[in-house]
């Protein structure tokens, strides 16, 4: 287009496609479903060695001696490392509290703790050599629960603690404690017509990502190391790795490799330091890939919890008060336990208006497996308990459980127990209305099918245990409250580098962030944002690495909000610089360059009225615009350690579920028929991906309701089921229909009005399933997961 001629118009057909609001396809989607996507476990390097980790066989013991001589003498072994071989005085790491040893020293604190490393020319050689390492243990008493952890004579899991939490906990085996006090719960209790309490137990859930922990460390000529790894937060890893290696951060160059799922389990380090240590010691590339057994010990899990709740209500159904105590088992090391405590306490009341509360949440140090981040992050355990309470109170009052929830539902403007006011839409009652209004699936579908009846629709499925005898239906509802983003005053920011240039005569945009794409679809959304803001069809997503500033963790439902906000911010800066170039070059040709609101659309500079002023290729020519900026959401603040008051969260998300189950009451088998969901997402940047996130979170919540649990022996603190044979996961045959109703009520404080999506459905699906099973059986069922013996009494 000649810039000296009359402006042309941009019509609907020439606008940039693939922007926000469209269900654009994932760039990695086809590769993943065809098996061609390269995951971190697929990486290869010439002359590489294989690393293996030797782990403790006991949960709590003194290490009397370690003999590595036989392992070192094994043909093909290049190195064997123990604690004494670590190169610097920094021998621990951790997300917040640096209490986790790189390799155990003096004692082991949990089953499966890393003790030694082996590098060899073949993975089987490395495993066999590790098995030859002789370790003499003197076993110690195990701490497995609150009673044993907080007894006056309890063995301390960590002696000589100096972290900043130690000053406000009653016992050194308590990692962190957070009370939330508002109003006078005891006085309010006196005004209640009914008071209902309950004790609840939440099992230990595994993230169960399919891609095991893996990575490749390559020693560099400058004395540094290049690490290619599957992780959730490159810069957090870097901050912990570099001091242990004794290297400046710019000599530890990290690149994200293909990630096969995460769900919180890759926030902590696993094999990163180990691979680097072996690579630097041997001078050769070292690859470490965990098998499934190792993976169960190589990452943290969801905190199991014991919860006590009390609610009071007036005869007309208004909640008067709430008291609760939440005890989370953090296992042997702190990981993210302090932040999980903050979430569990501040979200313990749920999406309800309760003016008088007395809440206490704490996490323990024990000799059980370390627990940390998992999708829902403390809010899942609380939601299971408070939603069971809502059903109990409603039953006590003789009210419909949905109407009771709606009567007490929070809304925009509600003051939370922390003193923070909800300043964006909170459509709790509307979500419940919508999910209740969805059509119910037909009853006894196996009968209506006649001879074509499919036993997969029945409890027990293909095991053919019933043809409908003893099968009863139940329906249950639940709704949850989840925060979005990092909280409690954490400096939550992200960085994006955006470059626009002309390649082959066409404008091209490159987006470079350190965001970990773990399957959530962030790379898709970043390209959509760039197309929307810069009007360029060709967008390239640069591989994530530490050569650009931090993007924070892919967790807390924050990446679309925070890194998406950073991409939008950098795109806006690029756009302004491009327009400045255009004004300098062509401003004299048309007054609109100086007077109109200018946009980039369809590869052109256009006015807000749709007049095209110039092609971007003509504006840029040989110039490139390259900008890297940080972006932050509104600041939060720490909760008061005595009262829990404070504006601790930046945003809240809400989802409601209705579960429909069929229960074989004779065998105690459960078939979830449907899990309908209604969720407010603010703005669906990619509607198809949003629905996928909601459905995925829903199934993860269903898993902990009816089958998923890591079983830890209470006598030995050993994991009894570290495999997908014995740790049961929902498969496609267990997956019910999941109709989704997406509500879009914009949060004016967020980019495009969006709201974090991924975690909220994980909260409410669990208690909805439990409520449906209770409805079918009449049993109280106060623990997850529900097992057959809980339903049959056997």
Automatic annotation (TrEMBL):
* Family matches, as Gene3D superfamilies: Aldehyde oxidase/xanthine dehydrogenase, a/b hammerhead, Aldehyde oxidase/xanthine dehydrogenase, molybdopterin binding domain
What SMART domains does the annotation carry?
Answer: Ald_Xan_dh_C
Which sequence ranges are marked TM in the entry? none
Protein's name in the database: Molybdopterin-dependent oxidoreductase
Organism listed in the record: Streptomyces brevispora
Indicate the segments forming the Aldehyde oxidase/xanthine dehydrogenase a/b hammerhead domain, all copies. 34-141
Span list, region Disordered: 1-25
Compositional bias per record (Polar residues), positions renumbered to this chain:
1-15
What the entry lists under InterPro entries is as follows:
Ald_Oxase/Xan_DH_a/b, Ald_Oxase/Xan_DH_a/b_sf, Ald_Oxase/xanthine_DH-like, AldOxase/xan_DH_MoCoBD1, AldOxase/xan_DH_MoCoBD2, AldOxase/xan_DH_Mopterin-bd_sf
Give the domain of life. Bacteria
